[in-house]
Design brief:
19 helices; globular; alpha+beta; Beta-galactosidase, Chain A, domain 5; Glycosyltransferase; ten-stranded antiparallel β-sheet; 22% strand; 660 residues; single chain
Length: 660
């Protein structure tokens, strides 16, 4: 009963109602009726679409006028300016794609075979469902993470082929693109199999394919027959997204809603002259997209999905959208705050951000080769709002080059600096050596990670105390639920059970809230209650050579407490056998000492986990989806205690060289 009341309080009656309605639609044959399986024979093209497939000049002009504004000359100039070694890497990636090896989730190479198998899980060689109507296929199964099956069907590999084509001029990359298009079209009848299950995936696919056609349109491999297939796929895809739109609008309300409404608007606008259905897509897409901008951001610029990864996705879409749409004063002011928020989230000179919140390493338009670099996203938004760029290092210009010659854009010299984003619940402490991220605030919207009071610490640009990431949304993969737990964050875990509770793979109830009660440039103090019984105060202090975390915990009922410090380092070892002092050796050779002290003498245990089990999760840091690397887990454990007082201090050992 408590769980039901929590669900109602945190999600609301309307949300619960819409989820129940959607579940009933899935369990019935509703979707099989309104979106029936079609082997492609029944799709009829309007005369206007047939004419476009037969007249490349007319189609090219239509793309130039009504698709989003791609600057082919600027794009080519950017890739022509790359170093020879970078060009060779781009063409190697494209050549591998022709052999069935795809760069998935931006960092993982998976082999889907040749001939291509769109339903294989390359990790275990099992096959996803390709026979049933999509509404009868489960999201989670023992076959593995469904995203592995979806990934190549997004056609995001098109951008790797485009880069190679622009660099080399080789027509084989267009032929590879069309080879996979034909293969996918034949293997995936409309509404059948896993690749028709998600409207966001469908939207990404048609956007990727269309961008490829924009560049490959004049080549011999772009035949009338293929363009007819493309328009049939486009028509059926938009029909699916529109009919199933309420799931994203009413039940999910996150980046899915942005992506789907963006696709409906873009293609509705592109083909509005063809028929009334496309006019409706355009009108609905525009209305919903702008509504989501008003609804999905906090006033201080943070994103309600509690994730940097998904915030970047929607900001890229918003930036592209406002390159060919008028922006209202209300939305302009909101996006100004988003720009300040994102720019202050950059943690080092490589423009990385904290590994905060859920992430599938997704990009709708992978217009950058370095997934970790967020400056391109910041630059694009800055240009749209201000007509200027915040950064002009070559690596920061790749994304803007797809739309505008960056040599013609001036640099904005003054950046707004801000450390506290109270509504979003994100705070920073920083000096020349350290930059700390602190998660403390009210949970206004559904969290996915139990990360309240998480601290991320960066030293000279290197991530030392880290958020362990996401790894996978499928809990059968390496105990992936660990990654959303408090143990995967540098915070306090209350045992035997915390109130924060996951229901299924995405729903969470009994949200944990925090409040910053004191905030000055070098110190933050915050308080929270865990489960209504445990009071936790966390104080952070920063000086020129040290960073401190002071935890004070009290409860009327004796409990077990575990404080986690997840550490990225080359090595870590106990520096003093008589005290809890640990020497941290970073990847650049610099050294830090981590010291643990407590007034509860002889009543706590410090453990350092260095030897990792490949079948476990603890100690494996996931910077991007399905990718892991070794890290270290230092824990401080208190058993059967009413109160706890513990101080963790990280101090610079020697003078360190700068990290680029």
């Amino acid at each position: 009963m408590k769980n039901i009341l929590s669900l109602i309080r945190e999600y609301g009656i309307k949300w619960i109602f819409h989820r129940l309605v959607y579940s009933l639609k899935l369990k019935s044959n509703y979707f099989k009726w309104v979106l029936p399986i079609d082997k492609n024979e029944m799709i009829a093209l309007d005369d206007a679409l047939l004419e476009l497939s037969q007249d490349k000049n007319k189609l090219s002009k239509l793309y130039a006028e009504r698709y989003f504004p791609l600057d082919k000359a600027s794009i080519k100039a950017y890739y022509d300016a790359l170093k020879d070694s970078e060009k060779e890497n781009i063409t190697r990636i494209a050549d591998d794609i022709a052999e069935g090896q795809f760069r998935c989730f931006e960092n993982v190479i998976l082999d889907y075979g040749q001939p291509m198998n769109w339903f294989i899980n390359p990790i275990n060689s099992l096959e996803y469902d390709k026979q049933n109507h999509w509404s009868k296929i489960r999201d989670f199964s023992n076959i593995g993470d469904i995203k592995i099956g979806w990934e190549p069907s997004r056609f995001l590999f098109t951008y790797d082929l485009l880069r190679a084509y622009l660099i080399s001029g080789e027509k084989k990359y267009a032929e590879t693109f069309w080879h996979y298009f034909d293969n996918w079209y034949d293997a995936n009848p409309i509404e059948q199999g896993i690749n028709w299950k998600c409207s966001q995936e469908i939207s990404i696919r048609i956007l990727s394919i269309t961008t490829g056609i924009v560049f490959f349109l004049d080549l011999e491999s772009t035949t009338q027959e293929r363009l007819e297939k493309y328009f049939k796929l486009l028509k059926s895809s938009l029909n699916h997204v529109f009919i199933n739109r309420n799931y994203a609008i009413r039940s999910i309300k996150n980046d899915h809603t942005f992506v789907e409404s963006f696709a409906l608007y873009v293609f509705g606008k592109l083909l509005s002259h063809v028929g009334r259905e496309f006019e409706i897509y355009q009108q609905h897409g525009k209305f919903q997209f702008e509504k989501e901008i008003r609804d999905q951001f906090y006033r201080d610029g943070g994103y309600k999905q509690n994730s940097y990864n998904y915030q970047r996705i929607v900001i890229q879409l918003i930036s592209i959208y406002y390159m060919f749409n008028e922006i209202s004063e209300e939305i302009f002011e909101k996006l100004e705050q988003v720009l300040v928020f994102l720019n202050n989230s950059l943690m080092n000179s490589h423009f990385e951000v904290v590994n905060f919140g859920p992430s599938d390493s997704g990009m709708i338009f992978p217009l950058i080769r370095d997934y970790q670099n967020y400056s391109n996203c910041v630059n694009l938004l800055s240009y749209v709002l201000k007509g200027r760029l915040l950064y002009k290092d070559f690596e920061t210009l790749e994304e803007i080059s797809w739309f505008k010659d960056y040599n013609e854009i001036e640099l904005q010299k003054n950046h707004v600096s801000k450390n506290n984003f109270y509504e979003s619940g994100i705070h920073y402490l920083k000096n020349e050596s350290f930059k700390a991220f602190f998660r403390a605030g009210q949970q206004h919207h559904r969290p996915h990670h139990n990360d309240m009071f998480h601290v991320d610490l960066w030293y000279k640009g290197l991530n030392v105390l880290c958020d362990m990431g996401t790894y996978s949304y499928n809990s059968s993969y390496q105990n992936s639920k660990y990654y959303s737990s408090s143990l995967a964050h540098n915070t306090l875990t209350v045992e035997p059970t915390e109130s924060f509770k996951a229901i299924g793979n995405f729903l969470v109830i009994n949200w944990i809230h925090g409040e910053v009660i004191s905030g000055v440039p070098d110190q933050l103090v915050a308080v929270r209650k865990v489960g209504g019984e445990v009071f936790h105060q966390r104080s952070l202090r920063l000086d020129s050579r040290a960073f401190m975390i002071h935890d004070q915990v009290a409860s009327k009922i004796a409990k077990n407490y575990l404080i986690s410090y997840n550490i990225l380092a080359k090595d870590i070892y106990k520096a003093n056998p008589d005290e809890d002092v640990y020497r941290i050796i970073l990847s650049d050779g610099s050294e830090l000492d981590l010291t643990v002290e407590s007034s509860n003498r002889d009543e706590y245990k410090v453990s350092l986990r260095k030897e990792l089990d490949d079948h476990d999760s603890i100690g494996w840091f996931s910077k991007s989806y399905l990718q892991r690397e070794r890290s270290f887990a230092l824990t401080v454990e208190f058993l059967d205690r009413l109160s706890v007082d513990v101080l963790m201090n990280i101090r610079i050992v020697n003078k360190d060289k700068d990290v680029a």
